[in-house]
Amino acid sequence: MAPVDARRLRRAIVFYATLAMAAISMAVATIAIGPLAVRLRDNARETLEHELAIKALAAEQVLDNARSLAQQVTSRTVIRERLEVYNKGGTTLTALTEFTRDKLADALTLSKELVGISRFTAKGEPVVAIGPYAEEGPAPPPTADRAVLGLRVQDARQFIVVAAPILSRDRSVAGTDVVVVDAGDLQTILDAAAAIGKTGWAAVVDVSSPPRQLMASASGKAPGPLVERLAARVAQQGKVLRDEGDDVVVAGAPLGGTSWILVQTIAADEATHQVDIFLLWVVVGAVMATALGVGGLIMVLRPLTGAILVQNADLECQVAELQQAKAELAAKSHRLALSNADLQAYAYAASHELQEPVRSIVGFAQLLQRRYGAQMGAEADEFIGFIVDNAERMRRQINDLLSYARLDYSEMAPEPVTLGPLVDEVLETLEARIKETQARISCSALPRVRGSREALARLFHNLLSNALKFTAGDEPPRIEISAQTAGDWVEIVVRDHGIGIEPQFHDRIFRMFERLDPSHYEGTGIGLAICRKVAEMHGGRIWVESVRGNGATFHVRLPAG
User: Fold this and answer.
1) Is the peptide bond between 447 and the residue preceding it cis, with omega within 30 degrees of 0?
2) Which residues contact 43 (CB under 8 A, 6 or more apart)?
3) How many angstroms separate the CA atoms of 524 and 9, rounded?
4) Beta-carbon neighbour count of residue 526 at 10 Å?
5) I need a labelling partner for 154 at 20 to 30 A (CA). Which of 54, 419, 502, 523 fits?
6) Distance of alpha carbon 532 from alpha carbon 289, whole angstroms
């Protein structure tokens, strides 16, 4: 046997051991780093979605603030009522403009972002334009259900334009307010979204036909087909989505209440640039650390990957905090509803407890009159009569107040109610009064409605009681009851031929404790307030048409059954 060359053997062992170590290290590195690389690159792209979701919430807040400013402008009662008067031909456009100008001018102080207000009539006629950037063009088509948002550029500045309907009491459109709000905050959000990298870009895209770009970051550019396709998908699914092209990553988020999509793009290689650099150094470190083995490689990767995961966790926490804030707002609204219910229960209990002392006052006053009336003289009898009459009036007010308090929105259980038999029952309760006044009442065929039978009985009882009460002289009352159906609604008409009501009191009579002629007619002033509450409980409304001396016609709109 030839002698073994120890030096050569040593070199061979070192060589093959080194080669085996390198092969094993590369295999282990490939198995360990491969899935991690995929995960880190995905996390880098998901970070774009999380950041865009936060920016979308901020943009929605800006749009909600613009809608809120528009609502504050349109809800000003005095100028809205004057606009309704014009629509009915009660004033001229010039007079309406002069009346509206000063009252809308102080609305510009609601916010420093509010830079222009324009008011238009229901026919689109311009009434007044206030502010340096007020809209002076034709009025947008009015819609009764929501405000319409738009964006425009003027003097190198971006503005949010809110066309808000001015609604009358009957929910019809009386006109339109076009409110112009500085879009600087929205531009700041877009620029911040575009600042994620050198190739970053953000824009607001309207997906309505045809799709168009409304507003873009300072590094803005025209949206490509990939952006338009993603925006259409986001609008359809209503959530944040991400898509990738050959060289770009795109994310989109819907802006609630609009057809607008907030989009953000970045070059694909820049989106994962930091991760790619990191992975390159890991591979280089793995090659250089062959002698250290797999354990050293994992210890190097663990803290670095942890930093990226912590960043994603922080973004998720921010989104969770915003959702918690929304939940707290909903809880406050719930507590407010409970508080209103407690106040209603308190009013009911207080009214109920007042009945006993009033009965005692009436009883003892009448007892005093029977036992000692002759001894105290005629003047004392008159005073006792005053006590009894006023106590009786207080008792009636308390009973009516109890009836009003019992009308509870939350406890109402709607059911189909046939109005014909219901009206017959109400007329039976008024039979004595009908015979006394020799009233003539005609009632056509009445349809079914959906609502509370008890509440509707109170409504008809109060309307018919008033028709029997407010008669013209000694003439017997004449009352006509009819109804007509229009779509999902039934309009009930109760007409009398009594003393009538002057137009300026048509709204006032539905308020609590309002009595137009207390010296000639008894009453508590609560009956028509109950009628209004019953109508509103059913989602409808009540109004009157009348002139003094020609009777009154009450209209009640209720949901069809």
Assistant:
1) no
2) 275, 308, 309, 312
3) 119
4) 24
5) 54
6) 84
Measured CA to CA, the distance from residue 344 to residue 337 in angstroms comes to: 11
pLDDT digits (tens, 9 = 90+) for 428-467: 989 988 998 899 999 999 999 999 888 898 899 989 988 8
For 367-379, write each residue's pLDDT tens digit.
777 777 666 666 7
pLDDT bin (cut points 50, 70, 90) of residue 32 is: low
With a cut of 50, say whether residue 77 has pLDDT above it: yes
**CA torsion through residues 490, 493, 494, 500, sign:** positive
CA triple 266-271-276, angle to 5 deg:
155
Give CA–CA dist 23/506, Å, rounded.
Answer: 95
204 neighbors 223 (Cβ within 8 angstroms): no
Say yes or no to pLDDT of 1 above 50.
no
Q: Are 523 and 509 in contact (CB under 8 A)?
A: no
Position 198: which residue type? K
Asked if 117 contacts 178 with a C-beta cutoff of 8 angstroms, the reply is: yes
The span from the CA of 119 to the CA of 102, in Å, is 13
Query: For 306-319, what is each residue's pLDDT tens digit?
Result: 444 446 557 677 87
Confidence (pTM)? 0.45
For residue 133, give the nearest of 178, 72, 69 by alpha carbon. Answer: 178
Q: Which helix (H) or strand (E) holds 174?
A: strand 173-182
What's the CATH code, domain 410-559?
3.30.565.10
**pLDDT, tens digit (0-9, with 9 covering 90-100), for 312-342:** 557 677 878 888 878 787 777 667 656 556 5
Task: Please tell me the predicted confidence (pLDDT) of residue 13.
Answer: 56
> Which residue has 């006052």 as its token pair?
361
What is the number of other CB atoms lying within 10 angstroms of the CB of residue 165?
23
C-beta of residue 136 within 8 angstroms of C-beta of residue 126: yes
Tokens of 64: 């909600």
The alpha carbon of 372 is separated from its chain's Cα centroid by a whole number of angstroms, namely 65
Is residue 494 within 8 Å of 481, Cβ to Cβ?
Answer: yes
User: Do the strands 448-451 and 415-418 form a parallel or antiparallel pair, or are they unpaired?
Assistant: antiparallel
CATH number 3.30.450.20 given to 17-291: yes
SS3 string of 227-288? HHHHHHHHHHHCCCEEEECCCEEEEEEECCCCCEEEEEEEEHHHHCHHHHHHHHHHHHHHHH
Give the residues across from 168 on adjacent strands: none
| Residue 164 CB burial class (10 angstroms; 0-12, 13-18, ≥19) | buried
Distance, C-alpha 50 to centroid of its chain? 27
* Local structure of residue 476 (DSSP, 8 states): P
Residue 540 CA: distances (Å) to CA of 276, 413, 492, 536, 552: 64, 16, 11, 5, 20
